[in-house]
Protein: Oxidoreductase
Amino acid sequence: MLIGTSAVVTGASSGIGAAVAQALAAEGAGVALLARRRDRLTSLADTINARAGGRARPYEADVADADAVRAAIDAAAADGDGIDIMINNAGGGTWGPAVTADLAGWHDMVEVNLTGVLNATHAALPHLTHAAAHHDRGVADLVTISSIAGRKVPSPHSNVYSATKHAVGAFTEALRQELAEHHVRAGLVEPGLVVTELTTSGRDYVPDATNPTGYGLLQPDDIAAAVVFMVTRPRHVALNEMLVRPTEQT
Ligand code: NDP
Structure:
C-alpha cells in the first residue's frame, strides 16, 4: 500500500523506530534510517534490503544537531525521490525526583525529545508539502511518537519527560491545523509502556504501569502497526492521534 513512497524514520537504530522502519518497508516504502549508531542502521538496512522489494539506507545524524539532521534529511530526499512520510521517533529520557535531578540530563531530554523534533520537522516540511502537491498519493504524513506521558496528567517523577511530550503534542496540533490545506497530515502516536532499550536498560527508568499479570506489555511491533494504520488511510482521512496502552496498563 506504500509502494513508491519514501519515508524517513528518526531513531531507527532500535526499539520502536526500528520496528516502524521495518513495517513501513514491508508495505513497500523506501526507508531512510536516521540515528547516531551507524552500525545498527547499516545492519537494519541490510536486513530490509535482503527482502523482496526492500529499499533502505542509513543516515547517521544526531537530531539535536540542526545542521546534521537537515543534511541527512535533504540527502534522504535526494536519494529517495522526496519524502512522503516523516516519522519523528528519536527520543528518550530519565525519570526521578526533581530535587536531586541532574540539570544537564534535563537539558539533554529537551534537546532530543523537543528540539530534535523541531529540527527534523523543519527540515522535512518542504519535502512533505512538495510530495503532497506533486506525488500521485496526493497526501503526505508527519507522524510524531509522543507518549502516554504527553497525554495524561504528569506523574511526579516524569517531570521533564512529560514536559517534552506535552510540548510535541502542542506543536503537532498547531501544525495539523496549518498543514491541512497543504494535504500534509500531522499525527501523534502515544504509546504506553513498550519493551525497548529505553524501558529495559535500567537507565533510571521507573515504569508508571502496574506490573501486568500475564497479558504482557507492548512490543515495538504493536506501535509500528499503529503507525502503519495511520499512514495508510485514504487521502481524505486524517487519523490525528492514537493512544496505545498495554491492556493492563492503568
Ligand atoms: P530506544 O532507546 O529503543 O530507542 C531510541 C532511539 O532514539 C534510538 O534509535 C536512538 O538511536 C534514537 N536517539 C536517541 N537520541 C538520539 C539523538 N540525539 N539523535 C538521533 N537519534 C537519537 O527507545 P524507544 O524505542 O522506546 O523510544 C522511541 C520513542 O518512543 C521515544 O521518543 C520515546 O520517548 C517514545 N516512547 C517510548 C515508550 C516506551 O515505553 N518504550 C513509551 C512512550 C513513548 P541512537 O542512540 O543510535 O542515536
Q: What stands out?
A: Residues 10-17, 35-37, 40, 62-64, 89-92, 112, 116, 145, 147, 191, 193-194, 196-199 surround NDP (CB under 6 Å). The beta strands are 6-10, 30-35, 56-60, 85-88, 140-145, 184-191, 241-244. The first strand starts at residue 6 and ends at 10. The helical segments are 15-26, 38-49, 66-79, 103-134, 159-179, 197-200, 220-231.
